Amino acid sequence: MEKLVINGGNSLFGSIDISGAKNAAVAILPAAIMAGSGKCVIDNIPDIADINCLERIVEGLGCLVERNGNSITIDSTSISSLNACTEDVRRMRASYYLIGALLGRFKEARVDLPGGCPIGVRPIDQHIKGFEALGAEVKIEHGAVHVKAEKLKGANIFFDVVSVGATINVMLAAALAEGVTVLENPAREPHIVDVANFLNSMGANIKGAGTDTIRVTGVEELTGCNYSVIPDQIEAGTFMIATAACGGEVKINNVIPKHLESISAKLIEMGVDIVEEDDYVLVKSEKNLKGVNIKTAPYPGFPTDVQQPMSALLSISKGRSIINESVWESRLKHVDELKKMGANIKVEGRTAIIDGVNKLTGAIVKATDLRAGAAMVIAGLISEGATEIYSIEHIDRGYPHIENKFKALGADIHRENE
Ligand code: EPZ
């Protein structure tokens, strides 16, 4: 087991490159196994534990996988199993995309129920509703989802809640269904558009991804393709927030500024100077920022995935800030850790009331989940003295080499064995 050790207080200067988007890549890898012929060569893959986990999972199904730096080649012509029932599958959330992918291509799959960050109840009823509407029989037995269909037929599906996972999963199955599927009230996150673009590169016919109606016209076969994953909106947001909190000037390269608008708007409201160019943002901060209120919401709203990093910044911002976490009911567990560092935060249900303090002080804390871990890193960077962060395997699931990227900007941070 490893821990991160941070000596806080340094401002951040320089430039960093944002990696490929985790939540796009973890859907694109399962989507790649839908190719009945040819290989998928996928670039800009982030070097994170969730990708390693998915690699092992698809290899277990019989795919041939080759990793070369940030590029992955997947040959799925030799799939020999429709059963994904392993510890890796149970450990991560995105393994549920194997259900839609295998159902689409083989009309059958057995996949263990997924795991993922402990941020609330994570039902899959909307995924199931979509698969059933396409004509599949869905059973949950012995902790696994078993889906089977004679054939899949396009349908009109209205999602009761806006769900990233359900939108992608049903889109995967519908890509190889007969006829037209219309998805109403889908999620509109940038990674939804990226997965649709990837499927279209494989020969699918998907229109409207990123809007409130997605239209999927089923095709008979998908084939291999070359593709590059979009930049990670959440990693970029995390570095923007860290720069705002630490003070300094950082050029954040390889981003799509449009995807960052809700984050940029909040930081500007707090007093941060942000310049947006074609593929980078320049963030300048002299600290002494003012608190703001935040309500998380599906895209294009303020992303729940940067709520926790943002709470670290708000804990040292002037006045009172209120966070309302509307997506996940238990995504404020990190607050107890921030309090160990001197933050003044009161949690009532899904709301955090933050009264800004002048400084945080280093402490021994843990990453209770992935983005909580990023919040702890930011808190450590702005604290007086030393911070040790434990359970950093959560951070490694979604941030590639976080300590190296911050070190390159002048932070005093390193990894040690516990
Ligand atoms: C994805 O999770 C992301 N994970 C999460 O990122 C992210 O927080 C979330 O979308 C929201 O943006 C991956 O992409 C792997 P949802 P997902 O289905 O798909 C309810 C991170 O930090 N819901 O959009 O599991 C659900 O309870 C991670 O990178 C149902 O009620 O989220 C939640 O309240 C953590 N029924 C809301 O919808 C369903 O069938 C949004 O969930 C599905 C979801």
Architecture blueprint of SSEs:
Blueprint: E1 2-7, E2 12-17, H1 22-32, E3 35-37, E4 39-43, H2 49-60, E5 64-68, E6 71-75, E7 83-84, H3 87-91, H4 97-106, E8 108-112, H5 125-133, E9 137-141, E10 144-148, E11 156-158, H6 164-175, E12 180-184, H7 190-201, E13 205-207, E14 213-217, E15 222-223, E16 226-228, H8 233-246, E17 248-253, H9 261-270, E18 273-276, E19 280-285, E20 294-295, H10 307-314, E21 320-324, H11 335-340, E22 344-348, E23 351-355, E24 364-366, H12 370-382, E25 386-390, H13 393-396, H14 402-408, E26 412-417
Parallel strand pairs: 2-17, 3-15, 4-16, 7-8, 11-12, 20-21, 24-25
Antiparallel strand pairs: 1-25, 1-26, 4-6, 5-6, 8-10, 9-10, 12-14, 13-14, 17-19, 18-19, 21-23, 22-23
The protein binds ligand EPZ.
Ligand EPZ binds next to α1, α5, α6 and α12.
Modified residues (2-(S-cysteinyl)pyruvic acid O-phosphothioketal): 117
Function: Cell wall formation. Adds enolpyruvyl to UDP-N-acetylglucosamine.
Organism: Clostridium frigidicarnis
